[in-house]
Amino acid sequence: MVYFIGAGPGDVDLITVKGRKLLQEADVVVYAGSLVSTEHLNFCKEDVEFYDSSSMNLDEITQVIYNAYKKGKKVVRLHTGDPTIYGAILEQMRELDKLNIPYEVVPGVSSFTASCARIKREFTVPDVTQTVILTRISGRTYVPEEEDLEGLAAHKSSMAIFLSVHDIDRVVEKLKRGYKDENVPCAVVYKATWQDEKVIIGTLKDIAEKVKEKNIKKTAQILVGYFLDDCGTYSKLYDKKFSHEFRDAL
Ligand code: SAH
């Protein structure tokens, strides 16, 4: 069996209990070395085989997994955050399908929720927004025109923008046009939950400058939206005058 596992955003204890257990039992681990902390490997067996996928192509990764599987070994493919978000796991699963190799996907804590936790906010604030958009700016990877940042920003939902901080000027430009407001709060979280984490708080007016001052060019979440303001609204869930399935109203 092959397990695609979400390693979490950085802090090694943010992997799931299931993920850690499988990692401890693995004979072969292929990990995304550019973003997965190598500290995870300390939990593996002594004779485990490691492969850093950052310098491997799809064929090489598939070959390693295939060879291990044929020998009856337990393989862990360790991805950063949650593997289903910008994890490029679909193509790997397709290759395994072709080879009739069974696999399971174990979810993880994505960097977008980890970043929101670090700044102690909630993406879905009552009376502000009930929607979270996960997206990225186009670059070498094409983003469909309908999903251009400007159009998405016009919804005024909470946004978590991946893979884009290197192009912060263009991001801000598009967001300003979409929100039609320069005072939209914005937070950039660099390496959320790592030792060298950095948090920058601002608005669309000044965030680009602040990001450049701190020389942040990668591994950051750009969180945008009015959810970042603490607007003091309350939910129905804990409202004493509101009843629901588990609680009666006063
Ligand atoms: N599957 C991952 C995302 C991989 S794409 C997840 O669920 O988080 C890589 C992008 O994720 C980076 O460019 C950055 O935008 C974001 N990212 C990954 N780890 C991060 C972290 N610890 N802090 C902030 N952003 C992070």
From TrEMBL:
Q: What is its EC number?
A: 2.1.1.133
Biological process terms from the Gene Ontology for this record are: cobalamin biosynthetic process; methylation
Q: Where is the Tetrapyrrole methylase domain?
A: 1-207
Please list the GO terms describing molecular function: precorrin-4 C11-methyltransferase activity
Q: Which family does it belong to?
A: Belongs to the precorrin methyltransferase family.
- Native organism is Thermobrachium celere DSM 8682
**Protein name in UniProt:** Cobalt-precorrin-4 C11-methyltransferase
What InterPro entries does its record include?
4pyrrol_Mease, 4pyrrol_Methylase_sf, 4pyrrole_Mease_sub1, 4pyrrole_Mease_sub2, Cbl_synth_CobM/CibF, Siro_Cobalamin_biosynth, Uropor_MeTrfase_CS
Which keywords does this Swiss-Prot/TrEMBL entry list?
Cobalamin biosynthesis, Methyltransferase, S-adenosyl-L-methionine, Transferase
Top-level taxonomic group: Bacteria
Family annotation (PANTHER family): COBALT-PRECORRIN-4 C(11)-METHYLTRANSFERASE, SIROHEME SYNTHASE-RELATED
Q: In which pathway does it act?
A: Cofactor biosynthesis; adenosylcobalamin biosynthesis
Q: Which Pfam families match?
A: TP_methylase
